[in-house]
From TrEMBL:
Originating species: Limosilactobacillus mucosae (Lactobacillus mucosae)
Residue spans crossing the bilayer: 6-27
GO CC entries: membrane
Entry annotated with the keyword Mitochondrion: no
Protein name (database record): Two-component system regulatory protein YycI
Residue ranges of domain Regulatory protein YycH-like in the record: 37-256
Length: 275
């Protein structure tokens, strides 16, 4: 074996050795940082319980989502209302308002059992198959179905079916908003976890002492307005109830950048999101 060949063997061997050492160092550093972060989060969760804030187990799993654009389908609803039967319908500012000819009796505990059948009939509800019952948002007086974007519910007044419930658990009518021209603007990206969203709210003093976090769900909420469409972003929607007063509040956390969502979306040029 010549000397040149021996030199190359040593060079390759030392290179592999350096790569292995570097890998162990990077993995170890990442693991240490992850353990430290988890320890800090557990400390904050303990502080929350000391402040008499109650909550169920919070998931640490990071999920994924998109920037998505959509447009309120005012003209599309207007063009299709003639298909509806057994109700009187009018349109107001892009919202379809229906009064049923015959009220629908619904179950108090599971109103979706009757309404799922109703909305799947295209002569009763337009595009009903694109909505799903949302138990968390519903109340005794209002049953809410939400439209979905990429498999997740839309939070807010857009893309909703709202059934009003009267006496004897009867539905007398509904309102509908509908989103169309839904487009993904950017590739899939990782979101913060449910636990991270709740901790962020607590650290920024949005969760009062002596309260209960009733639920935290990931969906889509409107964050930006373009010239003719709205932009939706993955959002943690959190319901909090104050134990002493019974007051309920809903908070929204942008699941991409950990910021509180604005009530009035910011207006931008849509080309910023396509880059």
């Amino acid at each position: 074996m010549n000397f040149k060949r021996i030199q190359w063997i040593f060079v390759i061997a030392f290179t592999i050795f350096d790569v292995v050492l570097a890998s162990y160092f990077l993995i170890g550093t990442h693991f240490t940082a992850m353990v430290k972060q988890q320890s800090q989060q557990q400390t904050i969760l303990k502080e929350m319980r000391n402040d008499e804030i109650s909550f169920a187990n919070l998931s640490t799993k990071q999920q994924t989502g998109y920037y998505i654009s959509g447009k309120r389908a005012n003209s599309q609803l207007a063009a299709a209302v003639n298909k509806l039967n057994d109700q009187s319908v009018r349109l107001s500012n892009g919202m379809l308002i229906s009064e049923l000819t015959s009220p629908i009796k619904v179950s108090m505990l599971n109103p979706d059992q009757q309404l799922n059948v109703f909305i799947k009939n295209s002569h009763h509800v337009l595009y009903g198959s694109q909505y799903a019952y949302n138990r968390d948002l519903s109340t005794a007086n209002t049953i809410i179905y939400t439209q979905k974007m990429e498999g997740r519910a839309v939070f807010g007044s857009e893309g909703q079916l709202r059934f009003k419930v009267g006496k004897n658990h009867k539905v007398y009518g509904y309102t509908q908003t509908y989103l169309n021209n839904i487009q993904v603007l950017r590739p899939r990206a990782v979101t913060i976890s449910q636990q991270e969203a709740v901790i962020w709210l607590y650290k920024h003093n949005y969760i009062p002492n002596n309260s209960k976090i009733r639920w935290a769900k990931l969906g889509y909420a409107k964050t930006l307005l373009t010239k003719d469409q709205a932009v939706y972003v993955p959002t943690w929607y959190v319901e909090i109830k104050t134990k002493s007063s019974g007051d309920v509040q809903h908070l929204r956390v942008n699941a991409f950048n950990s910021t509180l969502m604005r009530d009035t979306p910011q207006e931008i040029d849509t080309t910023q999101l396509n880059q």
